[in-house]
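Quick one, probably user error.
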């Protein structure tokens, strides 16, 4: 099947949905969802979205300011953020928050009934690691799910938007598919749409578009332990890699310090950083605090520092997990403020009002990705990217907590404004001469074990050798083993009918290669990249 639209969106998280709502008045929009529409990383975001509100200049709630948020972001990014991007994103935040509220997203507010406080009715703000002030808007401890709900309902109401589930984007269509040789040095690479696998029919369809946005999320499943949903397999990054687009900073993989230790469960359940902001403290297996050995900010240090500290303590003790002690917060606040975490822990026999929570780090967020400009456009013309798959320069070497949803909605807005102007160009037409996908001569591979076992092997290699702490030897060993896996998988791909599982494996291998390649090239310990062979 062939489809033609004005705006094609790959992904249905906060970036893809908010972009679609803004461009919809200017043309036909189609959103392709890899699984169910709400099955993405946005839904799993617990903590919230960072923003300085009521800031007509630099005055926010009480003592907060744009400048403080900017400085916190730069410090967390370890000196390699793009300062202009940081300033732009943070100063745009209040406008983007207002739009989310207009779309129907509900953030928690300070109760006004029986409350004589001047804050009554204002947004209830949390504080998280690396933040100097309380500035995290939230909806209890399931903020992402509330944002996803509000945006999806708005999308379903819009007559110009078609949302299609179980559609897996396989490859970006460029001049390569018209018979031209395309390399990373080819000037003027253009995007004409994507080939996508209809997972319900196993048919590969052709989607042609004047403008395409990738909002495909992260690549957390390149690691064996991750908080990201199973669909986070780096599809957008891998497609841009194959299309010879520019990628950047993929060595900076963020490991969340506190995922719930429950080995039988995948993905790992996240224990939000807001819990530490409310007073929870990290402790070793004997119940002793240890963060004073690593950072003066203790349990509220930025994620890279806390994750390395926990990793080191686990290695010293030989234990598989440590503890987060939230008992000092108080029973009422725990149950009312963190109901999802309370219920989840209770389901595995941990009552957080009286028990410490077993935790360990888990792969959580990619700070690098598809290199984009201030408008969210990639090096491939008419191809935009927003959200976790994009590298904007905001995060630098390490993302500040709750800046991810903010970045996604800001860059979705910028991309929408740019795409709307681009679509007004009458010369920007659908490339109808693009051929359909050719699967002639391919056979259905029935040995699923080849794919599942290779995926497990890949994830273990990345966790053991390219994780929180690295070395030259570990990176070399990972690269050598990955090379063998790559050759075996490409051989399978070249003779098999394409399936979602095989495509995901190829994408994960491509992402692993890029992480290793960029980690080997980074010859300094900065941000999330830490090697025992390098000095700061």
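Nope, works fine. Designed sequence:
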């Amino acid at each position: 099947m062939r489809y033609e639209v004005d705006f094609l969106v790959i992904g249905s998280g906060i970036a893809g949905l908010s972009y679609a709502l803004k461009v919809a008045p200017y043309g036909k929009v189609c959103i392709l969802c890899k699984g169910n529409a709400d099955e993405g990383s946005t839904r799993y975001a617990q903590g919230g979205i960072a923003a300085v509100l009521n800031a007509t200049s630099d005055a926010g709630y009480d003592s907060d300011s744009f400048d403080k948020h900017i400085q916190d972001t730069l410090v967390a990014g370890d000196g390699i953020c793009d300062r202009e991007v940081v300033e732009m994103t943070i100063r745009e935040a209040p406008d983007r928050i207002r739009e989310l509220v207009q779309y129907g997203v509900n953030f928690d507010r300070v109760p006004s009934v029986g409350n004589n406080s001047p804050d009554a009715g204002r947004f209830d703000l949390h504080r998280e690691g690396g933040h100097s002030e309380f500035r995290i808007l939230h909806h209890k401890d399931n903020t992402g799910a509330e944002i996803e709900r509000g945006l999806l309902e708005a999308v379903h109401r819009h007559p110009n938007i078609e949302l299609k589930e179980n559609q897996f984007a396989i490859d970006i269509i460029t001049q390569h598919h018209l018979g031209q040789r395309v390399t990373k040095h080819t000037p003027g690479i253009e995007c004409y749409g994507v080939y996508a696998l209809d997972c319900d029919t196993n048919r590969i369809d052709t989607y042609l578009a004047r403008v395409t946005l990738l909002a495909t999320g992260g690549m957390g499943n390149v690691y064996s332990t991750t908080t990201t949903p199973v669909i986070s397999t780096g599809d957008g990054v891998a497609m841009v890699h194959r299309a010879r687009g520019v990628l950047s900073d993929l060595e900076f993989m963020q490991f969340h310090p506190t995922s719930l230790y429950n080995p039988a469960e995948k993905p790992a359940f996240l224990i939000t950083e807001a819990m530490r902001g409310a007073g929870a403290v990290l402790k070793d297996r004997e119940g002793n605090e240890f963060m004073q050995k690593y950072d003066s900010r203790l349990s509220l240090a930025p994620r890279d520092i806390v994750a390395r500290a926990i990793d080191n303590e686990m290695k010293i003790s030989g234990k598989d997990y440590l503890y987060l002690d939230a008992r000092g917060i108080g029973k009422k606040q725990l149950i009312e403020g963190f109901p999802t975490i309370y219920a989840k822990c209770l389901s595995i026999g941990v009552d957080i009002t009286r028990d410490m929570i077993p935790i360990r780090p888990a792969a959580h967020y990619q700070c690098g990705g598809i290199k984009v400009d201030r408008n969210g456009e990639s090096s491939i013309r008419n191809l935009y990217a927003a959200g976790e798959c994009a590298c904007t320069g905001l995060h630098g070497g390490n993302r500040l907590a709750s800046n991810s949803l903010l970045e996604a909605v800001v860059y979705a807005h910028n991309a929408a404004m740019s795409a709307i102007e681009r679509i007004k160009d009458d010369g920007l037409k659908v490339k109808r001469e693009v051929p359909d996908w050719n699967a002639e001569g391919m056979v259905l591979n029935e040995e699923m074990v080849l794919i599942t076992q290779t995926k497990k092997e890949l994830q273990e290699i990345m966790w053991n050798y390219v994780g929180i702490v690295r070395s030259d030897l570990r990176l070399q060993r990972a690269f050598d083993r990955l090379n063998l896996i790559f050759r075996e998988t490409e051989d399978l791909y070249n003779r098999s009918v394409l399936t979602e599982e095989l495509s995901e494996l190829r994408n994960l291998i491509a992402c692993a290669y890029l992480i290793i390649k960029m980690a080997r090239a980074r010859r300094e310990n900065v941000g999330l990249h830490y090697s025992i062979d390098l000095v700061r």
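Residues 20 and 29 are 7 Å apart (CA to CA).
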